[in-house]
C-alpha cells in the first residue's frame, strides 16, 4: 500500500523530517470529473464513519424522518461521530423515546465519552458509560427510526441482510456509482461498512454537493441531511474536534466528516465538489492536516476564520513542558 501512494504529510522535529505519511485523495465534481487527485484512488477502502451521511439517506428518503418528526439536530446526529457530550446524549435519547425505544435497543455498544471533561463528569457522578455515549448512537437511532417506519424487526437492524441495511447499501452504491452488492466489513459500532474506491466515495459526496442529477426524492434527502450537518457542526463532532472546527471556519454549507483509520470526506456545495482522502497508515494527525489543506486549496476556508484553524493547516508540536519542537505539515511537493 505505502509504496504505491505519495508522501502527503510530514512530521518535523528540530527542522528534520522524523516521520512521513503516505496516502491518496480525490476531489471530483458531480459528473465524476477529477478536480485534483493523488495516489491510488481506485483501490477500495473502508470509509468508516466518514460515510454516515450516506448511511442516513434512507432515514429521510423513506419518509421515516417525517413520520417521526425528526429535527434538523437529530438528522445531524444521525450523520455524526460525536463526543458523547450532554447535548449529543440528550438528542439521541429524545429520538429513541419518540420511537418507544431505549438505550438498550442500540446495537452499537457502550464506550466512555470521547470528550475528556464529559467523561470526568460522568465518573464524578458515579455513572458508567452507556450506549448513548457511543459516538455512533445517533446513526443507530436513525437506523432504528427506519426500522420502525418499515415495520421491520428492531432486533438485528445492524445485520447486512436486514431491510434497513439493504436500503443503506442501495443508497450508497447508487450515489457512489458502484455495483449494488458491495463488499463490506463490520465497523466498530457493529454496522456493516461497505468498501469503496476513494474516487467513488468522493463522487458520492460530490452528488450531495451538486444533486441536480439525482432523482428528486434522493436529491431532496441528501440536501436536507447536508443542510442539517452544516447547521449543527457541534452535534456532528463536538468540542475541539476537527470536523466541527473546520465546518465553523468554512464557507457556508460546507460539510466535513472524519472516519477512523485516516479517512476524511468533505462536501462543498459551492463550488459543487466532493472530497475523499485516506492516509495509508491510518494516522488521523495526517488526515486532519490534509483535509484542512485541501479545503484551503479550493478556497473553502474563510479569510476571517483562518486563524481559528491555523493549527490544523500546520499542526505545531511541543514537548511536555510546552516548548515548540516541531510541526506536522503538508509535504512540500504534494500535488
From TrEMBL:
<dbReference type="Pfam" id="PF06089">
    <property type="entry name" value="Asparaginase_II"/>
</dbReference>
<dbReference type="InterPro" id="IPR010349">
    <property type="entry name" value="Asparaginase_II"/>
</dbReference>
<protein>
    <submittedName>
        <fullName>Asparaginase</fullName>
    </submittedName>
</protein>
